[in-house]
Amino acid sequence: MYNEKATAITKVLTNYLDGIYHGDVKKLKGCFTEEAHLYGDIKGTEYLKPLDEYLEGVKNRQSPSELNENNKMKIMGLDILGNIATARLHVPMLGFNYYDFLSLSLVAGKWKIVNKLFTHVE
Question: Are strands 32-42 and 110-120 parallel, antiparallel or unpaired?
C-alpha cells in the first residue's frame, strides 16, 4: 500500500516540478487543491498568496526552461502516514535556491498539494 501511495504522490510532485520548470500553469493547478495557500520568504521578504495569485505570477514570468536553465529540481524526501503526506523538494531556479515543504492529502481519491511552505537559502 505504501508503494502505491508513494508512486501516486511522486507523480504529483513530478508534475509540480515540471509545471514550475516549464511554466505550465494548467499542470501546476492540477497538483493543488483550489484552497491551497503558499507561504514563505524570498530573501527575507514574506510571501503569502492563494493559489490563483501564485499561478498568475507563474503565467506572467519567463520559465526556467525558456531561459535555458538546467533543470536541477529534485524530490529530497517523502513521508506518508495514512492519507496525508509531506514532501521536501529542492527547487533551484531563476537565480534562487528554493526549498519547498509541501503538505499533501488524498482528496476525492486523488493526491493533492494542500499547502506549500518555501524558503530561499543563500
Answer: parallel
Task: Single out the residue of 108, 110, 78, 103 nearest to residue 3, CA to CA.
Answer: 78
Q: What is the pLDDT of residues 1-15, one digit of tens each?
A: 669 999 999 999 999
Is 71:56 a contact under the CB 8 Å cutoff? Answer: no
User: What is the model's pTM?
Assistant: 0.94
Residue 25 DSSP one-character state: H
Q: What is the pLDDT of residues 20-31, one digit of tens each?
A: 999 999 999 999
What gap in Å lies between CA 70 and CA 37, rounded to an integer?
28
Domains by residue range for the chain, with CATH: 2-120 (3.10.450.50)
Containing 52, the helix (H) or strand (E) segment is: helix 51-59
- Among candidate residues 11, 6, 4, 1, the one with its CA nearest the CA of residue 77: 6
